[in-house]
Amino acid sequence: MLTYEKQDPYHLLNNINSGSLTKRWQSAYELSNLMSDVDKIPTDKLFVNQIITMYKKSIHDDPRVRTYLALAMGQTKNIDFCSHLISGLNDEVLENRIASIKSIGMIGCSEAVSGLNSILDPSYNNQERLASIISLGLLKDSSSIYNLVTLLDDEEPNIRWDAAISLYKMENYSGNNILENLLNREYYSSYPQVDEIEIDNAILTVLALISKTSHVEFEDELTKLAEKEKNIKIREFAMKILIENY
Fold it and tell me: Rounded to two decimals, what is the model's pTM?
């Protein structure tokens, strides 16, 4: 039914406030999607206050409402939401905590660095740890470097991979050997759970990451991709990087 209704931020907030259970979480989902369009993000204080009020109330609602409200706040890039998202790190529901972690990174809430660093500990859920690694890479606070370097030897592949990516964003190249592996399609044969689409996306992510720099250890893999890669988009991207940086 939402597709036939006016998709306005205030209309959706009203649905979240007074709609049925299904309508509340669906409206929160639509709001999070709507906020991905910068032209549709309200800039007035009323909107900020309303979404904060809805977020506070959602602690007693269907968890999906709180999850999507947190993601909507992250999409706005508004630092006024930081303190509320940081409080969400203590939510009982895993998905809500992960949404808070992601949005903290999207907004750039520097005061959350210490809390995110603590979540890197192996005692936490791996999904939380992974989200924290990614957000710390966005925050680029040097206090996270030591913790991220230790994760390059983590037993979980995704943890190792994203730790290397976040470190590179922070101009720390301790994980370059991991990034080099991620450019090699044959490397993924050891991880049958990773499908072809995920492999393509991983390679493209690393290419985008290294596209503005020149590190000799990547040259061989870039050359292989430029000459033999089956995915045209990847092949052309690798060729462009070689021409511009090597």
Answer: 0.93
| 198 three-state secondary structure | helix
What confidence tens digit (pLDDT) does each residue in 198-226 have? 999 999 999 999 999 999 999 999 999 99
Number of domains in the chain: 2
One domain for residues 98 and 181: no
Considering the domain boundaries, does residue 114 fall inside one? no
Residue 34, domain CATH: 1.25.10.10
d(CA 159, CA 137): 13
Q: What is the pLDDT of residues 51-80, one digit of tens each?
A: 999 999 999 999 999 999 999 999 999 999
d(CA 23, CA 43): 25
Under 8 Å between Cβ of 207 and 241: yes
Q: Which domain does 199 fall in, by range?
A: 175-246
Give the residue from 62, 81, 108 where a domain finishes.
108
Residue with tokens 């649905």: 15
Whole-number average pLDDT of the chain: 95
Distance of CA 246 to the CA centre of its chain: 30
Is 29 inside a domain boundary? yes
- How many angstroms separate the CA atoms of 164 and 5, rounded? 44
Longest dimension (CA), the chain: 59
Which two three-digit tokens encode residue 245? 């940086």
